[in-house]
Task: inverse folding
C-alpha cells in the first residue's frame, strides 16, 4: 500500500470527509497550473519526477490501433478533465491515452449541487453532474492555444467525448453533436458519442437505433479526416439493444464501442445512507461508477466481442482498481481500458501497479504482447 492509500485518501475521504467536487476542482486547478508552467525549471523537474515514479514503458504494452499508437492500454476515462485543462500532461501520470470531456456545444453549469457522492463501502461514486463544462468553443480555444506552446507533440492519443447540450431538444441532437465535432475535429485523435449518461434528461433514448443513426450519419459526413469515432453505451441496456447498436456501428463504420458508462442500478450496494443528504442511494438520482459496475461492464464487453467475432475495437471501462480487473476486461475482449473512480480511490500509483501487473500476467501466460491477450477468455 502506498502513502496515498495509507494516509492521503484515508485523511481526505474518512477523517475530514472532504467534499468530492471541491477536491476535484482543487485537483484540476493544480493540473492547470502544472500545464501552464510546464517549462519552468521547477515544474519541469516535477513532471520528470511524475514520469519517473508513475510511468511504465515496455514495448509489450504498446499497440497500434486505428492508426494511433498507444504506449499502454490504460487510459483516463472521460469525466475527470471535462474542459481539457491537462491534455498535454496526462502521459506524465502513466496513462497510455486520455479522454477529455464530456463537452457539449453550449456551455452549461450542470445539475444543482450536491451532485457527486463517494460510497466508500462500495468503492463507488454516485454522480449526477449533468455534463457541467465550459462548452466546445472554450475547449477548442484551450486546446489550440495549448498546441502552440508544445515543443514536442503529446506522446499519447487524446480522445474527446461529446455530449448533447441540455437546452437542445432531442430531435435536434444530431445537429448539436455535429456543431461540437466541427469545432474540435482537428484537435482530438479520436471522438466519442456519449448517449449513455443518465444525468441529461432523455439522453439515453438516443441509444435507440433510429435516433443514434441520425447522429452517426451527420458525423460520418463531416468526418473527412476519418478520425476514429466510438459510441459509449450504458451497462443497463438489454442484449437486443446492444445488438442493434453493434449493427449500426457496422453500417456507419464506427471505430468501436466504449463499454460502459455509469449504471442506474442500485443492486447489491452496501451503503445504506448518504451522509450528505441523509437519503439512501436508491432515493438519489444519478449514475453509479466503480466496483458495482465492474462485472456488468465485463459482461457487455464479452457480448460485443463475441457478437463481432473480435473484429470491433472495444474500450472497457467500469470498476478497474487492480491488474486483475484490467486483465479480466482485456481477456473478455477490450483492446483498451479506462479508469476514473478506481484512480480516485487508489491514487496515482495505481496506473503503475496495474501496468506492472499486466506485464506479470503476460509472462505467466507465455505472451509477448498485450494484443495477444485481447479476447483470449473467449477462445
Result:
Amino acid at each position: 500500500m502506498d502513502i496515498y492509500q495509507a494516509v492521503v485518501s484515508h485523511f481526505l475521504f474518512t477523517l475530514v470527509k472532504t467534499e468530492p467536487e471541491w477536491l476535484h476542482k482543487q485537483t484540476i486547478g493544480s493540473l492547470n497550473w502544472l500545464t501552464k508552467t510546464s517549462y519552468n525549471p521547477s515544474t519541469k523537474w516535477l513532471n520528470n519526477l511524475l514520469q519517473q515514479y508513475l510511468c511504465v514503458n515496455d514495448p509489450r504494452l504498446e499497440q497500434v490501433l486505428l492508426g494511433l499508437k498507444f504506449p499502454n492500454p490504460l487510459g483516463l476515462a472521460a469525466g475527470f478533465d471535462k474542459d481539457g485543462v491537462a491534455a498535454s500532461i496526462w502521459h506524465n501520470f502513466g496513462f497510455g491515452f486520455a479522454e477529455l470531456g464530456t463537452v457539449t456545444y453550449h456551455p452549461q453549469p450542470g445539475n444543482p449541487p450536491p451532485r457527486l457522492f463517494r460510497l466508500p463501502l462500495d468503492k463507488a461514486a454516485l454522480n449526477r453532474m449533468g455534463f457541467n463544462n465550459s462548452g466546445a468553443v472554450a475547449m477548442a480555444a484551450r486546446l489550440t492555444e495549448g498546441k502552440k506552446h508544445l515543443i514536442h507533440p503529446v506522446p499519447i492519443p487524446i480522445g474527446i467525448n461529446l455530449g448533447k447540450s441540455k437546452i437542445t431538444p432531442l430531435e435536434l441532437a444530431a445537429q448539436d453533436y455535429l456543431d461540437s465535432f466541427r469545432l474540435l475535429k482537428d484537435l482530438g485523435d479520436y471522438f466519442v458519442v456519449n448517449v449513455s449518461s443518465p444525468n441529461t434528461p432523455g439522453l439515453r433514448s438516443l441509444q435507440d437505433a433510429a435516433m443514434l443513426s441520425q447522429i452517426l450519419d451527420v458525423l460520418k459526413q463531416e468526418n473527412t479526416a476519418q478520425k476514429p469515432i466510438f459510441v459509449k453505451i450504458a451497462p443497463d441496456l438489454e442484449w437486443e439493444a446492444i445488438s442493434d447498436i453493434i449493427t449500426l456501428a457496422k453500417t456507419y463504420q464506427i471505430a468501436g464501442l466504449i463499454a460502459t458508462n455509469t449504471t442506474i442500478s442500485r443492486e447489491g450496494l452496501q451503503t445504506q445512507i448518504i451522509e450528505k443528504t441523509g437519503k439512501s442511494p436508491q432515493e438519489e438520482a444519478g449514475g453509479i461508477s466503480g466496483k458495482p459496475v465492474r462485472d456488468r461492464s465485463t459482461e457487455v464487453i464479452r457480448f460485443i466481442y463475441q457478437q463481432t467475432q473480435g473484429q470491433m475495437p472495444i474500450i472497457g471501462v467500469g470498476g478497474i482498481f487492480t491488474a486483475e480487473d484490467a486483465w479480466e476486461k482485456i481477456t473478455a475482449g477490450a483492446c483498451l481500458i479506462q479508469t476514473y473512480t478506481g484512480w480516485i480511490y487508489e491514487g496515482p500509483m495505481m496506473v503503475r501497479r496495474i501496468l506492472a501487473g499486466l506485464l506479470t500476467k503476460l509472462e505467466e501466460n507465455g505472451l509477448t504482447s498485450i494484443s495477444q491477450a485481447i479476447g483470449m477468455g473467449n477462445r
In short: Residues 7-16 have pLDDT under 50 and may be disordered. The longest strand covers residues 97-103. The radius of gyration is 19 Å. The longest helix spans residues 20-36.
